[in-house]
């Protein structure tokens, strides 16, 4: 019997068809264009005013029983999208009252990701949480551990993990099209977004004035487990990302996106060291610009590799192999191998790219980042950025922020933070270990089962 070779798209199409048999009555069998009520997931959203609105809008075939946000003015669009959903300002009240949920979608500020995720998983709920998965290293470890214990369906919101580009770079690295890779550089213009424009401020001091809390804003809920401070528009909405207490800076914002494919393609685990340099840094906000360097050990037949992160508009030196007239761009990734380089997914220079036969597509396509989680909730395969993978990636990403702390800046100009993955601690800077975790304000514990 003649055998035919499936294309990637044909393969994933057949795989999806086979996987559909594990769902509760697939919609194509029923011949309906929308999910029947008996199939719908019963969902809730927490933090639905910004990115959270986009996230919950991807699940309009499902049913939303509840929506929660500390700012009902910002949440107005979400309330209009799902008018049947019951409304809450406090996720703790929501989780207590909503006893028939299948899953929760979380897009709060970074400092509350782990707290809300763990509270939901303790109730055996499936969880979709925006990136970075957590605010601290130990939070990421704890979230991954509880997700594994509970066996719930999880997904972190680094949407690019489901892309064709992520699969292609994995196939190119597996085929060693540029030989063994010993350096990777990744950069972003964040917190900038253009000339003299910024997404959020960094390198600034805490405001001294205390304006009134706007009507409709549950300020105590915004603070959550962080140390209390008075309301100020310098923190909410969105501009919270640059503050140590609430966000994870440019590295936390973009690192879980741009480093995802690097971790997959180079099979990275924990680093052996992390170090950093930056512009002036204070105890309130992240620096305006920084460079963070991670060093990873050899993995199987892959050599040691250094991964260097740049933000605030900083970039690596221009590669010698890059053709005249071509630019690095304000955001990008550069793999440096023994036999060549790959810039933003393309081998450079063009002459070398034309001479190399690229490997065939072997990895199946994703059904879609958001659909992966819905399928996992229904008993399908684990989503691509499930919390076991996302926990590791987030631990490493936010570890870099520890090296940016003001008290280590001068010392780390000459030394590295050495990391012991098994003990989950820095071995040569004991004082740095206090930043692996944090203290939570009364009433907002990381794990509600432990108080």
Describe this structure in words.
- With 451 residues, the chain is of the alpha/beta class.
- It contains 15 helices and 17 strands.
- The strands form three sheets. A nine-stranded mixed β-sheet has the order 15-14-13-7-12-11-10-16-17. A six-stranded parallel β-sheet has the order 3-2-1-4-5-6, with helices on both faces.
- α6 links the parallel β4 and β5.
- α6 packs parallel to α7 and α8 packs parallel to α11.
- The radius of gyration is 23 Å and the shape is globular.
- The chain starts with 7 loop residues before the first helix and ends in a 25-residue tail after the last strand.
Quick check: average pLDDT? Answer: 91
Query: Could you say which overall geometry the principal axes of the C-alpha atoms support?
Result: globular
Instruction: Provide the structure class.
Output: alpha/beta
Compute the number of helices. 15
Query: How is the main sheet built?
Result: 9 strands, mixed
Radius of gyration: 23 Å
DSSP strand (E) fraction?
Answer: 15-25%
Widest β-sheet, arrangement of strands: 15-14-13-7-12-11-10-16-17
Strand runs, count: 17
Low-confidence stretches: 1-33
Give the N-terminus to C-terminus distance in angstroms. 64 Å
Specify the helix fraction band.
Answer: 25-40%
Detail the topology: elements first, then pairings.
Elements: H1 8-19, H2 27-30, E1 42-46, H3 51-57, E2 63-68, H4 76-81, E3 86-88, H5 91-97, E4 103-106, H6 113-122, E5 126-130, H7 137-150, E6 154-157, H8 164-174, E7 181-187, E8 192-194, E9 197-198, H9 219-223, H10 249-258, H11 260-266, E10 273-278, E11 290-296, E12 305-310, E13 332-337, E14 340-343, E15 346-348, H12 350-355, H13 369-377, H14 387-402, H15 406-409, E16 417-420, E17 425-426
Helix pairs in contact: 6-7, 7-14, 8-11, 10-14
